[in-house]
Write a sequence for this structure.
């Protein structure tokens, strides 16, 4: 069996971040270093609801949108928050620390 070396999202992304998209949703942004990486992800559909659900340990139904945004060569992913922003038990009111699972993404 051939051993294919996996590439890391960290090598091709300029920015990987998360933020609130209202009190009940979270947005993940991936902005690429070069247009060719953006085009690769778009063409091969590397980011899918299934992959994000697996990374975030949630249902695919919780992945609300995956948008390819040409002007900034970025992918925007919107998902439901497990706990509303600011509710008891919420440890990240701004949603700014929720991008960590993306850092392990390989393709």
């Amino acid at each position: 069996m051939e051993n294919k070396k996996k590439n890391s999202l960290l090598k091709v992304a300029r920015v990987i971040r998360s933020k609130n998209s209202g009190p009940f949703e979270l947005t993940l942004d991936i902005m690429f270093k070069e247009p060719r990486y953006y085009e690769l992800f778009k063409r091969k559909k590397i980011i899918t609801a299934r992959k994000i659900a697996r990374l975030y340990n949630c249902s695919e139904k919780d992945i609300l949108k995956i948008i390819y945004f040409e002007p900034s060569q970025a992918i925007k992913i919107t998902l439901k928050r497990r706990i509303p922003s600011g509710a008891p038990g919420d440890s990240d009111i701004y949603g700014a620390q929720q991008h960590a699972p993306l850092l392990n993404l390989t393709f």
In short: The CA atoms of residues 86 and 93 lie 5 Å apart. The chain has three helices and four strands. The helical segments are 9-12, 35-44, 49-55. The chain has a mean pLDDT of 94.
